[in-house]
Design a protein that fits this description.
With about 300 residues, the protein is of the alpha/beta class. Strands 3-4-5-8-9-10-11-12 form an eight-stranded parallel β-barrel, surrounded by four helices. The chain contains eleven helices and twelve strands. It has one domain: NADP-dependent oxidoreductase domain (TIM Barrel), CATH 3.20.20. Bound molecules: NADP nicotinamide-adenine-dinucleotide phosphate. The site of NADP nicotinamide-adenine-dinucleotide phosphate (NAP) has 24 residues, from strand 12.
Length: about 300
């Protein structure tokens, strides 16, 4: 496993996203968490909305029965998405965190992310909520999700707490964050700067890029692994899997980890064999040319 430094704590570069565990029973939840920990994963990502709160409840039941495991984990959750709207108000953040802590059976979160930008947010309210959550010990660190560089800067300039991470969607086949940087000053569609240079901002300011949906096509259209829509890419993934001696899923994760910044890949799989295969991505470093070949074989072009 590869670890990155987050405020002096060693946190795994591969994390378990717990969005898809809602259907688990107690035994499967235990197997999922213990397998991940045995493989060196100590980063677990939740959100108050996953399974309507049930994913956190299941995880919390495990922690209630096994309290000794809590200190082995970097536990993260998110709030701010309500049914049909986004809400970064002081009241909503404070209420959400209390609910999260209760469901997870823990007295603190290592990290809280604001889930999706609330354009109506008042940064002063976020500041008040974050300060009180920090002071009370309920949340140790704060970050955002799905924000562009300007939004992160704007919020960051108006609150005392440092925003250490931005959780964003990215996979070999979902690359809007990358495309514009490769097509500067061109008249084509990929040259459109949709995110204001967010990757460069994160690297420049030593923030963590957390990647969600590392295997999905678009917005939850299924994985590109073995998809007929990505025949060429899958052929290349197979070749590289052989070359590097890992599974093709690990190549897909290694492609993300190859970005020159602090990256954490948030896995969506809840299958323990897939998790074991995924962590092998940390044992390899893709050659630069291979990284570009995968980008091209996903259907992209270079100028
Ligand atoms: N911040 C946000 O807005 C946001 C949004 C969405 C998600 N997230 C976070 O990101 C995490 C990952 O998202 P995701 O679930 O969409 O991720 P993903 O890794 O792109 O997709 C996971 C899905 O792919 C399937 N899959 C098929 N073949 C696989 C293989 N060989 N290896 C691994 N998985 C395979 C998995 O099934 P199996 O379980 O059978 O392997 C699972 O259903 C979530 O759990 C959540 O924590 C954040």
């Amino acid at each position: 496993m590869k670890y990155i430094d987050i405020f002096g704590k060693k946190v795994s570069a591969i994390g378990c996203g717990c969005m898809r565990i809602a259907g688990f029973d107690e035994k499967k939840t235990e197997e999922y968490i213990c397998t991940a920990l045995d493989l060196g994963i100590n980063f677990f990502d939740h959100a108050d909305i996953y399974g309507g709160g049930h994913c956190e409840e299941l995880f919390g039941e495990f922690l209630k029965k096994n309290p000794g495991y809590r200190e082995k984990m970097f536990l993260q959750s998110k709030c701010g998405i309500r049914k049909g709207w986004f809400d970064f108000s002081y009241e909503h953040i404070m209420e959400s965190v209390d609910g999260i802590l209760e469901r997870l059976h823990t007295d603190h979160l290592d990290s809280l992310l604001l889930h999706r930008p609330d354009v109506l947010m008042e940064p002063e309210e976020v500041d008040k909520a974050f300060s009180q959550l920090k002071e009370s010990g309920k949340v140790r660190h704060f970050g955002v999700s799905n924000m562009n560089r300007f939004q992160m800067e704007y919020l960051g300039n108006n609150i005392d707490e440092k925003l250490f991470a931005d959780q964003l969607q990215m996979s070999i086949v979902h690359t809007p964050l990358i495309d514009a940087g490769l097509n500067v000053n061109m008249g084509n569609d990929p040259s459109i700067m949709r995110d204001a240079g967010t990757l460069e901002y994160l690297r420049d300011h030593e923030r963590v890029l957390q990647v969600w949906s590392p295997l999905q096509i678009g917005y939850f259209e299924g994985t590109f692994l073995n998809s007929e829509r990505y025949e060429k890419l899958n052929g290349t993934l197979d070749q590289m899997a052989e070359k590097y001696g890992v599974g093709k899923d690990a190549i897909a994760y290694a492609w993300l980890l190859r970005l020159p910044m602090k990256v954490q890949v948030v896995l969506g799989t809840a299958n323990i064999e897939h998790i074991a295969s995924a962590v092998k991505a940390c044992d390899i470093t893709l050659e630069k040319k291979d990284w570009y070949t995968l980008y091209l074989d996903a259907g992209n072009r270079l100028p």
